[in-house]
């Protein structure tokens, strides 16, 4: 008998939230304004899913060999300032079938968690703009600013488990659109890790992290969950 699924942890941007990569476009702009010329693809490859200071460090280090914490802080400050303005006009909506899936999971008494490499203020801004409410559309939000270590470390998932009283990580699914989401799920010991092609990384890139499944639509989770219910 398969382990019964009790909780699903979803990444936000690119997974449950469609915001047309406004965060990474803004991050690219802030980095390039510091004297660089990185493409959006380069920023996505190194930065997707990561806490945003970590993302800046990764982009600078991998592509330019630069490790400069003062520069990282300057870029991050500019990014946060620009992001607030970007979100005022950015079209933000749930990903296709996100609402339907969340409702279906609630009907099955499966807990739902949103987790993200954003800080809490940014994540809450996104959630508010979509009209979602904790306790109604999903159970809890866990953000990069809530934990000491961020993806690929498992701290956000472990905190969600603690807050919701889930004691066995094998009863948890992690779903995300980036390699680091899958790595986070594996490091947390999740029973299943699922990549989705609606965001940062391609099916091929996601497959390189060896998830249990790669999907194109969130509703594809329901048959998988059914297979693992008692």
From TrEMBL:
Keyword Glycoprotein included in the entry's annotation: no
Gene Ontology biological-process entries: DNA repair
GO cellular component, one term: cytosol
Record-linked InterPro entries: HAD-like_hydrolase_sf, HAD-like_sf, HAD-SF_hydro_IA, HAD_2, HAD_sf, PGP-like_dom2
The keyword Protein biosynthesis is assigned to this record: no
Classification via Pfam families: HAD_2
Gene Ontology MF: a single term: phosphoglycolate phosphatase activity
Keyword tags: Hydrolase
SUPFAM superfamilies assigned: HAD-like
Name this protein carries in UniProt: Phosphonatase-like hydrolase
Source organism per UniProt: Pedobacter duraquae
């Amino acid at each position: 008998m398969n382990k019964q699924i009790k909780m699903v942890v979803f990444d936000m941007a690119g997974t449950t939230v469609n915001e047309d990569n406004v965060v990474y476009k803004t991050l690219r702009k802030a980095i390039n304004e510091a004297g660089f010329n990185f493409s959006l693809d380069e920023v996505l490859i190194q930065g997707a899913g990561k806490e945003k200071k970590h993302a800046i460090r990764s982009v600078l280090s991998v592509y330019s060999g630069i490790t400069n914490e003062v520069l990282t802080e300057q870029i991050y400050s500019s990014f946060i300032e620009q992001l607030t303005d970007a979100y005022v006009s950015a079209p933000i909506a749930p990903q296709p079938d996100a609402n339907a899936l969340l409702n279906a999971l609630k009907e099955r008494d499966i807990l739902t968690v949103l987790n993200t490499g954003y800080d809490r203020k940014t994540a809450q801004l996104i959630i508010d703009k979509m009209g979602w409410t904790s306790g109604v559309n999903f159970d809890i939000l866990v953000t990069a600013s809530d934990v000491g270590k961020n993806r690929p470390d498992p701290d956000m998932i472990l905190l969600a488990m603690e807050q919701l009283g889930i004691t066995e990580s094998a009863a948890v699914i992690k779903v995300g659109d980036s390699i680091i989401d899958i790595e986070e799920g594996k490091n947390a010991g999740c029973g299943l890790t699922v990549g989705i092609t609606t965001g940062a990384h391609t099916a091929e890139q996601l497959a390189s992290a060896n998830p249990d499944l790669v999907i194109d639509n969130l509703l594809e989770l329901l048959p998988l969950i059914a297979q693992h219910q008692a």
